[in-house]
From TrEMBL:
GO molecular function: magnesium ion transmembrane transporter activity
Protein name: Magnesium transporter
InterPro entries recorded: CBS_dom, CBS_dom_sf, Mg_transptr_MgtE_intracell_dom, MgtE_N_sf, MgtE_transporter
Organism encoding this protein: candidate division WOR-3 bacterium
PANTHER family the record matches: MAGNESIUM TRANSPORTER MGTE
Pfam families named among the record's database cross-references: CBS, MgtE_N
Magnesium transporter MgtE intracellular domain boundaries: 2-93
GO cellular component term of the entry, any: membrane
Amino acid sequence: GLEPSEIWEILKHIPSRTRVEIFSHLDENLQIDMVGVLKREELANLISDMSPGDRVDLLKSIPEDQREALMPALAQAEREDIRRLSSYPEGTAGAIMPSEYGTLSPHLFPAEALAKLRLEAPDKETIYYAYVVDDRRKLIGFVSLFVSLKDLILAPSNKRIEEIMHHNVIFARVGDDQEDVARKIQKYDLLALPVINESSQLGPRK
């Protein structure tokens, strides 16, 4: 078969999204071997394009000295994201949850909500649902609340988000086992599942 350096020579000439997708499906040992032949800048760019969960998994698998040498080459937001995800036990929902979600204030009108989501969408890992949170980022009530994008588009323009949001949404907690989360997503036929932290806030601990 091809040597790791030869594989990288092929991968580096294809679009980054496709490159990352192919890399993520390679055998873990081959990934580690490839990391060993990449220049720091190449590795930093590759890791920056990866999903947060895959990024952390890869960094955990490479030698500590190589990992520490790489960290300064990453953007501050990515470094913080890596440290945050690494702080949760492996195999839990917290270790793979998105850094950010599409969130809305309950007081917005549909047009305002759509404009906000349109601006945020390119930077969000998932935008299948928009979650409604209060000023402290706590999910409103005792369960998470979401607004389907279809609901936003079809909603009367004079109704606020709090009038059209769904109250009975399924969520996971940061300590939940990933397999349980996957089963929950499958059971309820969901496209995404919000993860709440120890303070019942959406997303990572603050």
